[in-house]
Amino acid sequence: MKQAQFEKLYAEKWHNFSLLLEGEEIAENQEDNYQFISLYRLICQHYALAKQRHYSPQLVKKLHDLVITGHHQLYAKQGNWLSKIYHFYAYTFPNRFRQHKGLFWLSFACFTVPLLLMGLACYFNSEMLYSLMSSGQVREMESMYDPNNPLFGRESSRQSDTDLMMFGHYISNNIGIDFRIYGIGLFAGIGTLFLLLYNGLVIGGVAGHLTGIGFGERFWAFVVGHGSFELTACVISGMAGLRLAQSLFMTGNYGRADAFKIAGKQSIELLIGAGTMTFIAAFIEAFWSSSSMISDTVKYVVAVLLWSLVIGYLALVGKKSN
Amino acid sequence: MNQPTPKIIDNITQYPTPEGLMLELVPAGLMARASAWVLDLAVRGLILVVCFIPLILFKLAGVGLFLIIMFLVNWLYPVFFEVWREGMTVGKKYSGIYVCHDDGTPISLQSSLVRNLLRVVDFLPFFYSTGVLSILFNRKSQRLGDMVAGTIVVYQEKDDMSQIYRSVYKLMENQPQAKISLNPQTHYEPTSPLFYFPLTLQEQQALLSLSDRLPFLPIARQKEITQQISPLVQTSNKLAVRVNNIDVVHDAVLARAKQLKGGES
Predict the structure, then answer these.
(1) Size of interface A-B (CB pairs under 8 A)
(2) Which uninterrupted H or E stretch holds A19?
(3) ipTM for the assembly
(4) Are B131 and B143 in contact (CB under 8 A)?
(5) A55 touching B, CB under 8 A?
(6) Residue B8 CB neighbour total at 10 angstroms
(7) Within an 8 Å CB–CB cutoff, is residue A293 touching chain B?
(8) Eight-state DSSP code of residue A107
(9) Poorest-confidence range of A50-54, A141-145, A160-164, A169-173?
(10) How confident is the model at residue A116 (pLDDT cuts 50, 70, 90)?
(11) Contact A264/B150, CB-based, under 8 Å?
């Protein structure tokens, strides 16, 4: 068949298909509910024919473009946004978390062991913290939780201003840390392990130091609430980073490139969950933990609730498959 | 599959679709991506400046909001554009490239997040050196983030060829056309080997390509081009003698092209 004949024969189909691609209705055949699919297959065939018969590059290209655009529409991921979000938090994330329990405990150990050791060391030896932080930073930290400092927490006059500023700071800083812990995991996980270790040391050191010099009351009441979401999220970010690293060494039944892709999909789910948790933590930290009008007892009660919420969510939610 | 395998120099990746076709994607090279990145950097800077000026009026609360905006712009600016603007950030659109999955489907939120959060790694140890090396040594021009996300940055196909011709030649479609003699017998005897398509694939395509482009070319240009490919119609002795006559060559080439395409329509 000559090209001109071919074009004449099918030009209408191609035109109809391009109309469908732009989202317009075509009147051709109303009973056929699968117009798009059947036209798409037909055009795939035409493209193959045009190529095989060596028709002009322009025609081949035109058909190729139709095929590519059709391919995009046919294989695009679809679905309702809200139900997707719900499905993610109610099912995907907690299940993914439980699927990689081993990585969680590894990440947990790398974070918690240095935290506890450094905490104890700093509790008994108030000089210890200076090995990690400069004296300026330590002084700043001490003044923040000094019981004799009346400016702790909100000032009643401009409270919402400060809260909002700190909210922004916590978000950009803490979620940024999560993202870095994750990304650096691609280099065999060394970066992730280092960051977990370092964060554990600093957090443990500060906690131990402040408790040791008697500022503990204020400090613990401040951190215990949002710590539930923040620290867990930090460990989960580490877990996501380690998942990337895992695919480098343990590829399973896949080639390394495919193992990477699978790890990428799974780890980003963990990280989205961790990022959300850090966001919640920032909210609690800015508007609840910092409030000086709420008594410490209430804060501790709420903290117990928050911790059980986090643990319960990760351990139980989404166990029934749907 | 008797697909012609692309030459290495062509830098084309192929993906077989369930319909039995080979989709061809042309990965974007380093310079296109770098210029897109630089432009995006400028756009991001602009967004921040524009947001900063009114927010500074709100003092501390404004600073808080600004920090949030800065976080979003720094980490999620490319994600937003890639997922909701068909794989193109502002810079990518300007460079004529877009990002999709390596099977040619539109990029998903997760993949976009992976490839953009892993910029941290591609940046190391300084100024995207890991990413640059990875792009240069990867056949699909992927940086590490692309490999993990299973994405690929490709050139956008310009879908309207006539638009390109118009923009190149600044001509309208209804140019006066040369009169083509439609009787191939004038120049070919059925005994001539040319009559049975002995042209190589490339030669056929050159002729076909020409016949598709004719409506966009002025006659002077048509004659100039047909002279270049006159060897394709020169087997008949009669023609070889008169090859210096441009009009004859022009007619012969056009007739040949018409014949190849099946011109009677």
Answers:
(1) 162
(2) helix A3-21
(3) 0.77
(4) yes
(5) yes
(6) 8
(7) no
(8) H
(9) A160-164
(10) very high
(11) yes
Is the CB of residue B73 less than 8 Å away from at least one CB of chain A? no
Nearest Cα neighbor of B157 from B98, B220, B243, B86 is B98
Q: What is the pLDDT of residue B11?
A: 74
Question: For B63, which residue in chain A has the nearest alpha carbon?
Answer: A165
- State yes or no: pLDDT of B242 exceeds 60: no
- Portion of chain A with pLDDT greater than 90, in percent: 32
Tell me what pLDDT residue A154 has: 45
DSSP string of A286-301, one letter each residue: IIIIT-SSS-HHHHHH
C-alpha count within 13 angstroms, C-beta hemisphere, residue A38: 9
The C-alpha angle with vertex B43 and arms to B40 and B47, in degrees rounded to 5, equals: 140
Query: Would you state the pLDDT for residue B225?
Result: 77
- Any bridge partners for residue B151, and if so which? B101
Task: Name, in order, each residue with C-beta under 8 angstroms of A80's C-beta and a sequence gap of 6 or more.
Answer: none
- Does the structure show a pLDDT above 50 at B150? yes
pLDDT tens per residue, range B57-75:
887 778 888 888 989 998 8
H-type helices in A176-215, by residue range? Answer: 176-183, 190-212
What whole-number distance in Å separates Cα of residue A179 and Cα of residue B46?
24
Structure token pair of residue A238: 């580490």
The number of residues making up chain B comes to 265
Backbone φ, ψ for residue B101 (5° rounding): -65, 160
Please say whether the beta carbons of B95 and B36 come within 8 A: yes
Interchain contact, B209 vs A56, CB within 8 Å: yes
Among B76, B83, B90, B254, residue whose Cα is nearest residue B182:
B254
